[in-house]
């Protein structure tokens, strides 16, 4: 068993996101909890966060094309450590 303190850090972040709804691009500030700390990795590997953001911005029954872009991370605070390494998280979310 691995030590809880040796894994990847888990961050609570505030980010600016952009999404298109009814041909209008909107921006919003929202919170994100993830082991990934840059926008490209969050969009590529953190499917739970991206699904939550889609449901928050578009709703569950929206038929619109759901594209969300994380523009920047405005604040970042370390919460804890994960039991997995960053590479293990990337492999786990590619399934």
- Low-pLDDT runs of 5+ residues are none
**Class per helix and strand makeup:** alpha+beta
Domain tally: 1
**Major sheet details:** 3 strands, antiparallel
Figure out the total of helices.
3
Give the amount of beta strand, in percent.
Answer: 35-45%
Order of helix and strand elements from N to C terminus: EEHHEH
Structure description:
The protein is of the alpha+beta class and 95 residues long. It has one domain (4-93). 28% of the residues lie in helices and 40% in strands. The chain is built from three helices and three strands. It has helices spanning 39-45, 47-58, 86-93; strands at residues 9-21, 24-34, 68-81. The protein has a three-stranded antiparallel beta sheet with strand order 2-1-3. The longest helix is centred in the middle third of the chain and has 12 residues, at 47-58. The protein is globular and about 45 Å long. The model has no long low-confidence stretch (mean pLDDT 86).
Labels describing this entry:
95 residues, alpha+beta, three-stranded antiparallel beta sheet, 3 helices, 3 strands, globular
In brief:
This protein has 95 residues and is α+β, with helices and mostly antiparallel strands.
Write the layout of secondary structure elements.
Layout: E1 9-21, E2 24-34, H1 39-45, H2 47-58, E3 68-81, H3 86-93
Antiparallel strand pairs: 1-2, 1-3
């Amino acid at each position: 068993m691995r030590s809880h303190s040796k894994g990847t850090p888990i961050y609570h972040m505030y980010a600016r996101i952009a999404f298109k709804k009814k041909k209008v691009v909107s921006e919003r500030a929202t919170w994100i909890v993830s082991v990934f700390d840059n926008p490209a990795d969050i969009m590529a590997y953190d499917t739970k966060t991206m699904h939550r953001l889609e449901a928050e911005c578009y709703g569950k029954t929206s038929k619109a094309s759901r594209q969300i872009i994380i523009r920047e991370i405005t604040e970042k605070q370390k919460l804890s450590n994960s039991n997995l390494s960053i590479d293990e998280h990337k492999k786990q979310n590619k399934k």
